[in-house]
TrEMBL record:
Organism: Fodinibius roseus
Entry protein name: SH3 domain-containing protein
Transmembrane segments: 134-155, 167-185
SUPFAM superfamilies reported in the protein's UniProt record: TPR-like
Keywords for the protein's UniProt record, in alphabetical order: Membrane, Transmembrane, Transmembrane helix
């Protein structure tokens, strides 16, 4: 029932367009919606993916892709697209509802370790503030601190506490800017990925005959370390949700 309600809502949705030159993406989106309504799920997926490849992205597009893949029992890909849809404000609530439902449908469930406090804080900063905003705030505070310090040279009678205040502001600014750089570093180095095939080994080294760390199943989520993975284009170095580290063939996962 929830799936039908969401489908009815988002079949009427629209992708961002501007001007007459952009009517084709909207027409393609409408065509895909009609195919999805008539049960031609993979044909709808093909149309939606054309829009995705053209970078005509929206929460509704990803939500409908998730619904289409769920209908053909490709639950890993459905989860991947629901996660992407949850990153858009207009579809976040509905995507989270679908994720709650689909996570209960997987035949294998992975143990999930709680995130470390600094990981939680970093992800919150990424999602709600962003590294650029942090850096801008840090630069403003840094300049304010310098101005307070210089003001002592030109304005007589300022209390001695102004010097302490200026150093405090500069110190806070440096801390904020350092946090901004770290947040950007984490964002560039790590990504979330979803297992989209039935099962695959997680190995100690990027070789097919390597010793196993664990076995992964459809729907498992990972944190991909791009820095370590770059040297092995066919493999990804991942952290599993249970805290184990290892290598998995890149073709088995989809990276957000």
């Amino acid at each position: 029932m929830l799936q039908r309600i969401l489908l009815l809502i988002f079949l009427c949705g629209a992708i961002p367009v501007s001007g007459d030159a952009q009517q084709r993406p909207q027409a393609l989106f409408d065509e895909a919606n009609k195919l999805l309504s008539s049960g031609q799920n993979m044909e709808a997926v093909q149309r939606y993916q054309q829009l995705e490849n053209q970078q005509n992205l929206s929460g509704a597009l990803f939500l409908n892709l998730g619904i289409a893949y769920q209908r053909v029992d490709s639950l890993g890909k459905a989860k991947y697209y629901y996660l992407k849809s949850s990153q858009f404000e207009e579809t976040a609530t509905r995507a989270e509802q679908m994720l709650d439902y689909i996570n209960k449908q997987f035949s294998h469930q992975s143990a999930i370790l709680p995130k470390l406090p600094w990981d939680v804080a970093t992800h919150w900063l990424q999602d709600n503030i962003g590294a650029r905003t942090l850096l801008g705030a840090g630069l403003i505070l840094f300049n304010m601190g310098i101005l307070f310090f210089i003001a002592r040279w030109f304005i007589r009678g300022l209390p001695r506490a102004v010097k302490t205040i200026s150093f405090t502001i500069v110190g806070l600014a440096v801390a904020i800017m350092a946090t901004a750089f770290y947040t950007q570093y984490v964002s560039n180095r790590y990504s979330v990925a979803v297992m989209v095939t039935e099962d695959a080994p997680v190995a100690e080294t990027p070789r097919e005959d390597a010793s196993l760390v664990s076995q992964a199943f459809e729907g498992y989520t990972f944190t991909v370390d791009h820095k370590r993975s770059n040297a092995q284009p066919e493999w990804s170095y991942v952290r599993m949700s249970n805290g184990l580290y290892g290598w998995i063939p890149t073709k088995e996962i989809m990276i957000l």
